[in-house]
Amino acid sequence: MVENNRRMSNIFERYLTIWVGLCIIAGILLGKFVPQFAHKLDSMSIMVNGAPVISIPIAICLFFMMYPIMVKIDFGSVIKAGKSGRPVFLTLFINWAIKPFTMYAISLFFLGFLFRNFIGAEAVDLVKMPIGLNLPVGATHGAGIVVLQEGIKMLEIPLWRSYFAGTILLGIAPCTAMVLVWSFLARGNDGLTLVMVAINSLTMLLLYGLLGGFLLGIGSLPVPWQALVLSVSIYVALPLVAGYFSRKWIINTKGEQWFKEKFLHLLNPITIIALLFTLILLFSFKGEVIMSNPLTILWISIPLFIQTVIIFTLGYIAAKLLKLSYEDAAPAAMIGASNHFEVAIATSVMLFGISSGAALATVVGVLIEVPVMLLLVNICKRTQYWF
Length: 387
Fold this sequence. Notes:
By secondary structure, the protein is an alpha+beta fold.
């Protein structure tokens, strides 16, 4: 399926957690003290309905993060991997029948009850009016009140509810990119992971809006179809196609031995380096907000951390009960635990605004995901003997 030599062979891989922390700090400081640089990068985006949906710099980084993994996959084995129905069923069940509702319950308990006074029981946030809704100033819509802000109608809602909305958008967006990195590092079945990513991407197109509208408690959630299609195309399809054709061409022209011993050796550090640059860019966009609200980051992080650990544990135990091999169990558990934060960020910005608490919560999701998923990768590798 894919070469099994996946040891942390260079300084970036051996000390990845330290590098991740340093890059997050560097991104936050960059956004705080050189905001014009972050704004310039943020302006380099593909726009949909006036909202920045795909950041071109981040898309470039994600391509170089994904391509070295895609090119190592023997695509002839993908169909064979897809015939194993149990891991595919497991990830679909965890992602769509359990994960959205546990995220709702956990976030509501922590943000709406336990941490509500710390966040500020009377604190409010200004978010966009739902698309197509035109209410007079002073009218109520759900938990919000229509107000006029700089000549634009906005909804004034409790701040904790805005954070709550962001966590919901994370909870209903299963990962379709980064999980390939986590599966690769955990020595999982990359071909099966790719199949599960493709199935979840298609399922997300059908269920993302329905679950979002239901769980957020709004009349209807305007589904960002363009954002979803662009995201899947750029973060998954583009490196997939490039990996398939370049692998085929290189092996045909240079031979399989040269491909494995020379070409792949040159690619080894690229995935990790691209991941680190991606983190710097993502956190530079929200550096000033994070610096001014450090405790808020903590309140949002706790339910997201608990959700990630619970979903991984459920998936991993279920994989053991279903008698899956370790190579199938690791990605089946991690694809549910991780989130498609690119889609969540784009959706929160489109629905609530770039300065909203919902958008901040989705960015905090990135802060939680990378170090926690690296921890789960290590747990997987240490428990291979269970399977």
